[in-house]
Design brief:
By secondary structure, this protein is mainly alpha-helical. Among the domains are: 35 residues, no CATH class; 32 residues. 74% of the residues lie in helices and 0% in strands. The chain has 3 helices and no strands.
Length: 102
């Protein structure tokens, strides 16, 4: 048990000391919490239970349309980015510092 506690404290210390690790950890924690909340809401809601077969099919069509639109937006944004950057490597030296402060 003491070994586990020592390892846990060492990991926490590294997360505090190394900003890049801290940012990755916080982002992973946000992603996990978002996924957990969405899964919980989907599991507990009865949304769609009252839909007819035609209504369910329409919901599927709308979902597919939204995904196609998002993919198209993503492709256009990448193309614009390539054109504006001229395929230049990104310089991260001028990146603003993280707003995470512990």
């Amino acid at each position: 048990m003491i070994l586990f506690l020592i390892i846990f404290v060492a990991i926490i210390a590294l997360l505090i000391v190394v900003p890049a690790w801290r940012e990755r950890f916080v982002e992973a924690l946000k992603t996990f919490s978002d996924t957990a909340i969405v899964s919980f809401l989907r599991a507990t809601s009865r949304f769609g239970a009252e839909l007819t077969e035609e209504g369910k099919a329409e919901q599927v069509r709308w979902r597919e349309q939204r995904m196609r639109n998002l993919r198209g937006l993503s492709l256009r944004a990448r193309e614009r980015s390539r054109r504006s950057n001229g395929d230049q490597p990104v310089d991260n030296k001028n990146k603003p510092p993280s707003d995470l402060s512990f």
